[in-house]
Specification:
two-stranded antiparallel ribbon, 187 residues, 3 domains, 434 Repressor (Amino-terminal Domain), mainly alpha
Length: 187
């Protein structure tokens, strides 16, 4: 930390009430409430480490690779942040490579995120969706305009306008639910 940052920390800690670890660390206060706060903090830290909840500094490379892999699967950094409970700015900085290190707990939270937290407007592979559309058209004798209407089109003359490469997660879900409705679970 720079001298300027240290001065800010000391000034901020000095404004904290007695009985907080921040005040004890910043000012070196030796009163009973401040010593008790420091002792409680250290006891909790030791207990957490004993139980395997070590929260030291680790390289952020593994978390970065995971964020990038999720991004390729349609999960953006904002969804990763929301699902993990880690601040957006931290996830963004890890993703960019600006933040080289992070806390072990932050890494564990990020690595626990999977594709189930994908946003409904995320783009995903369209092949499974088109397989279901093909089955609906062939087995259930839907016309493309009927299928478009069943999927929610409000156009006067509806037409099926679904990309062959990528579809939104919402569209994929609508097609899957429609298929399940007409196929009684035969996937």
């Amino acid at each position: 930390m720079t001298e300027r940052n240290l001065r800010y920390v000391k000034e901020a800690g000095a404004r904290k009430p007695h009985g907080t670890r921040a005040r004890q660390r910043a000012t070196g206060c030796d009163c009973l409430p401040c010593r008790a706060a420091a002792s409680r903090y250290e006891t909790q830290r030791v207990r957490a480490r004993r139980e395997g909840d070590w929260n030291g500094i680790v390289k952020a490379a593994k978390a970065r690779q995971h964020i990038l892999a999720l991004s390729r699967k349609g999960v953006g950094y904002k969804q990763v942040a929301a699902a993990s409970g880690v601040a957006r700015t931290i996830v963004f900085e890890i993703r960019r490579g600006k933040r080289k290190n992070c806390r072990a707990r932050t890494e564990r939270l990020i690595l626990a995120v999977d594709t189930s937290c994908r946003g409904d407007m995320a783009l995903i592979d369209a092949a499974p969706t088109w397989r279901l559309i093909g089955l609906l058209l062939r087995d259930h004798y839907f016309a493309k305009s009927q299928l478009a209407k069943a999927l929610g089109s409000r156009a006067r003359e509806p037409s099926l306008q679904i990309n062959r490469e990528k579809v939104t997660a919402r569209t994929a879900l609508r097609v899957r639910l429609l298929f399940e409705k007409f196929d009684e679970g035969r996937l």
